[in-house]
Amino acid sequence: MSANSSRAGQLLSQASACVSWKQDVEGAVYHLANCLLLLGFMGGSGVYGCFYFFGFLSAGYLCCVLWGWFSACGLDIVLWSFLLAVVCLLQLAHLVYRLREDTLAEEFDLLYKTLCLPLQVPLQTYKEIVHCCEKQVLTLATEQTYAVEGETPINRLSLLLSGRVRVSQDGQFLHYIFPYQFMDSPEWESLQPSEEGVFQVTLTAETSCSYISWPRKSLHLLLTKERYISCLFSALLGYDISEKLYTLNDKLFAKFGLRFDIRLPSLYHVLGPTAADAGPESEKGDEEACEPAASPPQATPTSLQQTPPCSPPPAATNFPAPPSRARLSRPDSGILASRIPLQSYSPVISRGQAPLAPTHTPEL
C-alpha cells in the first residue's frame, strides 16, 4: 500500500505544472454549457425525469462542442462532447418511441382515469389488464342482445364503456346497466374456473353501446398469476354486484310499497310470470286448507247441537292467538313467505309479487 502511494506521488511530482494561468476567462458558451450540465444532473427519476435529465445533458454537450470548436480549438474536446451529445439525443429518441408505443386508446385512457386512477392502480398493471382483452373495443347496436337467457354460455367478462343495457328475465324488466359497470359480474362470480353455465337473464342494448370483454380462460390465468390484479377484480366485482342488488331492492320498494331487505335468504330474483302462474295454485291450495276447518261444524249431529251454550269448550282446542301489534306494523319476509295470506295484508300480498323461497327466516 505504501509503495503504491509513493509511486502515485512520484507521478504527480513529475507531471508538468501550469507555468502560467490565463488572465482572461472562457467565453459565455463554456459557462452556459456547465450551467446546463448542472441542471441536467439535478433531474429526478421516472419517465419525465429521464426527459429532463437527457434533455439538459444534450443541450450542455452541444454547447461544449461549440466551445471546443470556436474557443478552445481542441479536436479532442469537440469529439468527446459531440459523442456524448449524440448518446443523449439517442436516449431521448428511445423514450419518445416507447411513449408512442405504450399510448392507450382514448376509450382505455378514459377508463383508467374513471375506474382505476381513483384506486391508485399503477399504469403498468392497468396495461397488463388491457393487454388481456387484446385492446379491442366491441360494439352493440340498438336492440341487439348481448346474452340470451338459457342459451348464451358464460365464457367471458365484459365491462360497458358507453350506452345503456337492459336486463330482463322471462320478459320482465329487472334493472339497467350503465357505463363503467360490469355486464355479467353475477354470472362470473357464480361459477368456478372449471365450471360451465349459461346466462339466467337476457341483456339487450337499448342504445348503441361499446364494451370491452375479457375471455374467461385468459382472465383466470392472469388472476392466478398476479395477486394484486386478483384483489383488484374482487373489489370491483363485489362493488358492482352490490350495486345491482340494491337496484333490485329499490325496484321492489317502488312496486310493492315496502322496503325489502335483500340480505334475507328468503328473497331472491323477481320472477313475474312464475309468480303469476303460481298464484292460482297457491289460492287453490289455501281454499283446500280452509275446507277441513269449516267441515266439522256441518257434520255435527243434532244431538250435539242441543247442548247447553254454557258448556265450556274442550280443553284440547287451542285457537291461535292473534298477531301482536308490533308484528302487524312491519311485515317481514317470514309473513310474506307464508302460504296463508293475512287479511290485514291482502292488498300487499297479491298476484305478481316477488316469489319467496319456501324457507322461513327468523325475525331480525
Short synopsis of the structure:
The chain is of the alpha+beta class and 364 residues long. It has helices at residues 2-14, 28-40, 46-72, 75-101, 106-116, 123-132, 185-190, 216-225, 227-256, 272-298, 302-305, 325-329, 333-337; strands spanning 138-140, 145-147, 156-162, 165-169, 172-177, 202-205, 209-215.
Can you give keywords for this protein?
13 helices; 7 strands; disordered C terminus; 364 residues; alpha+beta; 10% strand
Give an overview in words.
- The chain is α+β, with helices and mostly antiparallel strands.
- Among the domains are: 84 residues; 134 residues, Sandwich (Jelly Rolls).
- The chain contains 13 helices and 7 strands.
- The protein has a 4-stranded antiparallel sheet with strand order 2-6-4-5. A 3-stranded antiparallel sheet has the order 1-7-3.
- Helix 3 runs antiparallel to helix 4 and helix 8 crosses helix 9.
- The chain is elongated.
- The termini are far apart.
- The relative contact order is 0.07.
- The C terminus is likely disordered.
- This is Popeye domain cAMP effector 2.
- One of its GO terms (cellular component) is sarcolemma.
Q: Which residue ranges are poorly predicted, with pLDDT under 50 across at least 5 consecutive positions? A: 262-364
Question: What is the class of the domain at 123-256 in the CATH system?
Answer: Mainly Beta
Number of helices: 13
Which outline best applies? elongated
Secondary-structure element sequence? HHHHHHEEEEEHEEHHHHHH
Please, what is the CATH homologous superfamily of the domain at 123-256? Jelly Rolls
How many E-type strands? Answer: 7
Strand content: 5-15%
Helix content: 40-55%
- Biggest β-sheet strands, sense, barrel: 4 strands, antiparallel
Strand order of the largest sheet: 2-6-4-5
- Class from helix and strand fractions: alpha+beta
Level-2 CATH architecture of the domain at 123-256: Sandwich
Distance between the termini: 86 Å
What is the third-level CATH name, the topology of the domain at 123-256?
Jelly Rolls
Q: Radius of gyration over alpha carbons? A: 40 Å
Rounded average pLDDT: 75
Organism: Macaca fascicularis
Pfam families: POPDC1-3 (PF04831)
Membrane topology: Multi-pass membrane protein
Domain POPDC1-3: 26-251
